[in-house]
Amino acid sequence: MQAVVVHRPGYVSVERVEDPTCADDGVVIRVSRCGICGTDQHVFAGDYGLAQYPLIPGHEVAGTVVEVGRAVQTIRPGQQVVVEPNIHCERCLPCRTRRGNHCLNLKVLGINEAGGFATFLQAPERNIYAADQLTPSQAAFVEPLACVVHGVCRLAPTPGSRILIAGAGPIGLLMLQTLLHSGAAIITVTDLHASRLALAQELGASQAVIATNDNDGELMDIAPLGYDAAVDCTGIPLVIERLVPRLAPGGKLLIFGVAPEEAAIRIRPYELFQRDLTLLGSFAVAYTFDAALALLESGAVRVDRLVSRSFGLQGFAQGLELMRKGIDVLKVQLDPALDHDQLTSS
């Protein structure tokens, strides 16, 4: 089969590799769509600690089942499915306390196991979910939306909440829509790009504010007493720092965007103490695939406008660069069925 292979940070090629072998409890799918996300950019750059090279990246996977192992009972060939990339051991203490995203023996497709930027992918039956009601492009959003659902569960907004979201990329727009169905009454979104803010308002944002160094007055006009919660969807330390003063007493800050591992933020402990503030992190998915599927299948979360470009596997490097620049580009998805005349590498 053909696959994208990151041999080491900064070097990727598209090449022929061995087809996956179906385990007794495994399912092999033909990949129909796999989204490029910010984590893939960190994997390519070499600043994502879990990554093991060489690797086939890609973890936002949708496809069609082509083979099942002899012990598989719930999945059949021909089904359209999505794949949860986190493979838990189910034996360690985190797994047994429903913190499988912190499994002590965690394997992650596209990070330290072969991922979805390939013709075929193999995963355990327990990681496979039927998604017959969605298009392949929509289905490839289940994984990032499941991450968002976990983050919203961590944030636990109360009915009537005023929430500030920094970043109107694909994750910020998924976060916006999920929060709208989780009790938020007012959601303000900030971003550098007017086109993204316009889409945020189409999807339900109460206000959209251009992100500048002097927009504090505009944000305070919207919420004079501060926001009940703020969510960073940028991974930029300075942006995270600037969200803290925007919180109301008792407010919560969810750090959702993936920052480089060595990045740091400056926050005064006294401010956390005196204003009853809460800092929260959110890592990957945590038993939230079913909820993400329900949000997409019901139409509560809309994703069709979030797909900017589709490429074959040979378009991985180009798609990565387009998303890095972030100008008029939201989500890029790879479709291994798309034909290309030449293999490309960078």
Helices, strands, pairings?
Blueprint: E1 2-8, E2 11-16, E3 26-36, H1 38-45, E4 60-68, E5 80-83, E6 86-87, H2 93-96, E7 107-108, E8 120-124, E9 128-130, H3 136-139, H4 142-155, E10 161-166, H5 170-180, E11 184-191, H6 194-202, E12 207-210, H7 216-222, E13 227-232, H8 237-243, E14 247-255, H9 269-274, E15 278-281, H10 289-298, E16 307-311, H11 316-325, E17 331-334
Parallel strand pairs: 10-11, 10-13, 11-12, 13-14, 14-15, 16-17
Antiparallel strand pairs: 1-2, 3-4, 3-8, 3-17, 4-5, 5-9, 6-7
Helix pairs in contact: 4-5, 4-10
Short description:
With 346 residues, the chain is α/β, with parallel strands linked by helices.
What does this structure look like?
- The protein starts with a strand and ends in a 12-residue tail after the last strand.
- The protein has two domains: 2-141 and 303-334, Quinone Oxidoreductase, Chain A, domain 1, CATH 3.90.180.10; 154-281, Rossmann fold (3-Layer(aba) Sandwich), CATH 3.40.50.
- The longest helix is centred in the middle third of the chain and has 14 residues, at 142-155.
- With 346 residues, it is of the alpha/beta class.
- Helix 4 packs across helix 5 (170-180) and helix 4 packs across helix 10 (289-298).
- It has helices spanning 38-45, 93-96, 136-139, 142-155, 170-180, 194-202, 216-222, 237-243, 269-274, 289-298, 316-325, and strands spanning 2-8, 11-16, 26-36, 60-68, 80-83, 86-87, 107-108, 120-124, 128-130, 161-166, 184-191, 207-210, 227-232, 247-255, 278-281, 307-311, 331-334.
- It is globular, with a radius of gyration of 20 Å.
- Strands 3, 4, 5, 8, 9, 16 and 17 form a seven-stranded mixed sheet that branches. A six-stranded parallel sheet has the order 12-11-10-13-14-15, sandwiched between helices.
- It contains eleven helices and 17 strands.
